[in-house]
Specification:
Blueprint (H helix, E strand, L loop, with lengths): L8 E5 L14 H10 L3 H8 L18 H10 L3 H5 L4 H11 L6 H24 L10 H8 L3 H5 L12 H18 L15 H29 L6 H6 L6 E5 L5 H6 L6 E3 L2 E8 L5 E3 L9 E5 L11 H16 L1
Parallel strand pairs: 1-2, 2-3
Antiparallel strand pairs: 4-5, 4-6
Length: about 325
């Protein structure tokens, strides 16, 4: 950042700045649902990686014994059917088991697991088989998908990246979740997956990186045209850009180029604290760079910070982004 001009205004911006009412990027309940169903992630993973090393399975990201995700989601939800379930004897008995996990209390855990399997896991897979991601109205499954908390689930898997080949099953789960999240973010980008046939892996990665940039640029150009016709529909980034101020900064948890492209702020005034769409990470070396800069034998995953309690620092780029953000907060 420039040392000459201190920052007076720092805007901390989240998913709402790019959601449906703004730029139609997946967020909130829709984003969580896309991760859980993991629909179509395999196409994207196979496009950007060779499948002879790691090969995540199709299907939802939950398994028959993911009852802890259900428990965490119920515990953190403050309204609706999930909140009401806290009064259910099955939930209350499971709490008792957690405080006293002795063998004589195992039946309490099993009843909770059975409930999760019947009303969440089985119903989820029935929807997936029907090629649907729409849960019945007023169902506990619908509320679960809208509020699902994956924090502990993700946090418990990060350590597997220390030795990816030793923990291949867990790493495959992580790859599924990260590529599902990435696909959810870019699903409005109109990527032509058919055009990648008969290309080498390096060519695919290079073409995808270029298409990603072009898609974002197109969205921004269309947004600017719409805003010129109807100034009342300007997005948050455009409004911030109108300040025309050298003492303004943006701290964003979003991943797209929109923060800079629509605000007009320079790179040293925008902090991407949750990663970026054009950055990927080699799961072996933890090297982070643009997609086209990887070697063919490197297995890559999107460099995103998903909703988790742990944000692992793996490269100096992250440190630089947090340094920019901290300075913006201090000076504003």
């Amino acid at each position: 950042m420039s040392e000459k001009v201190k920052i007076k205004y720092a805007f901390l911006l989240g998913a709402g700045c790019e959601a449906n009412a703004q730029l139609e990027i997946s967020s909130g309940a829709e984003f969580k649902k896309d991760i859980v169903f993991s629909k179509g992630f395999k196409t994207l993973y196979g496009l950007l990686n060779s499948e002879d090393k790691f090969n995540p399975n199709k299907g939802t990201c939950l398994s028959w014994n993911s009852h802890k995700i259900f428990f965490q989601t119920v515990s953190e939800t403050e309204s609706g059917k999930l909140h009401e379930f806290k009064e259910n004897p099955i939930y209350i008995d499971y709490l008792k088991y957690l405080t006293n996990p002795k063998k004589e209390n195992e039946d309490k855990k099993e009843k909770f697991k059975d409930y999760y399997k019947t009303y969440i896991y089985d119903e989820l897979n029935n929807l997936a088989k029907d090629n649907s991601i729409v849960a019945p109205e007023n169902s506990i499954l619908k509320e679960f998908l809208e509020n699902v908390s994956l924090c502990s689930f993700l946090d418990g898997m990060f350590s597997s990246l220390r030795y990816p080949t030793k923990y291949e099953i867990t790493v495959n789960k992580l790859l599924k979740i990260y590529f599902s999240a990435y696909k959810s973010i870019i699903k409005k980008f109109e990527i032509n997956y058919e055009s990648y046939k008969n290309k080498t892996l390096h060519e695919k990665r290079k073409c995808f990186a270029n298409e990603l940039r072009f898609a974002q640029q197109t969205i921004m150009e269309n947004k600017k045209k719409d805003s010129e016709k109807n100034p009342k529909k300007k997005c948050y980034y455009e409004i911030i850009g109108e300040l025309k101020s050298t003492d303004t900064a943006i701290i964003t948890t979003n991943y797209t180029d929109f923060s800079m492209g629509l605000s007009g702020l320079p790179e040293d005034r925008v902090s991407y604290i949750h990663g970026k769409l054009n950055l990927f990470e080699d799961i072996q070396s933890k090297r982070v760079c643009s997609l086209e800069d990887f070697e063919n034998d490197e297995v890559v995953m999107p460099f995103l910070f998903l909703p988790s309690g742990v944000k692992p620092i793996v490269c100096d780029w992250q440190i630089q982004q947090y340094e920019k953000a901290c300075r913006a907060i201090r000076e504003a």
